Give the backbone structure.
Amino acid sequence: MDRRQILFTGKGQLEVVTNSVGPVGSTQVLVRTEASLMSTGTENICFNRLFAPGTHWDRWVKYPFEPGYSTVGVVEEVGTEVSRLNVGQRVAHRRGHASYHVVAEEACLPVPDGVEPEEAVWFALGHITHNGVRNAGIKLGDRIAIIGAGPIGQMTLRWAVACGAEQVLVLDAMPKRLEIAKHGGATFTLDRSVFDAKQDVEDLMSGPPDVVVDATGYAPVFEAALGLVKTQGRVLVIGDTGTPSDQRLTPDLVTRGLTIHGAHDNTRYPDRDPQGIARLFFRLVQSQRFILTGMNTHFFSPEEAESAYSLANSSRGDSMGIIFKW
């Protein structure tokens, strides 16, 4: 079977190619893609090679490179040993931007009724940000400041609200992103750069926050985050920068007894696996505890991929969820 697929063929270069989908094995299923979400931060770094030599990015991005990792579709064929999935069932999986995929049964996450494909595609970023909120120990009554209202910041906000945070302030210099954060439950929003926002944050929150989240992927923000959090507070770094050597420690770490937490997609827990996190995410969406209103701002066909990535590169303040409709 032929499929369409988006590939990065070089720095700033892409093609929509036609290739073949392999046969369906006994424990695999064939999934016809309905929607795939562009991970704008990650894919922007990969597309433009915005990373330093020798980093994990440099080891990962080899051409031709298959972008994307958050896809929802419908099962069209099942292998002879598949037992829990049926033809016609909607599933989510961690594959790239393509019209069809052959996926192991165990790698497919059933999407429950009442969760639309355009909502379900957020499950992968939901997994990453779940890990961040859990690693940082965000809990009932915490006061949180999130730097950066892009997709990662937005999803971190929603988990923090679901965990019972008392206050969540979202800081971003792009007003349209802050409007989306308000839908997601932000207590306060602040339209300015973090580098001159310390007093405003403390005024709004009646003191420095318990936890500061760097969700930007912009290395210089780390230093500002260390200065923003309360003494003996926690800093969560969840925006993955392409230039980690530019992230600078400050005396705050030692003199004010701070704790720094990192989180990534590959973090694992003994009591809740990625499938369990996805099921939790879907339940929160179903129950409207995860409000995704306004998160999807642009829809493109695969043939419009160049326009989609151009938008992500040039108009980040006007875009959030960029979805390919297949």
Summary: The mean pLDDT is 96. The chain has eleven helices and 15 strands. The domain at 128-262 is CATH 3.40.50.720 (Rossmann fold).
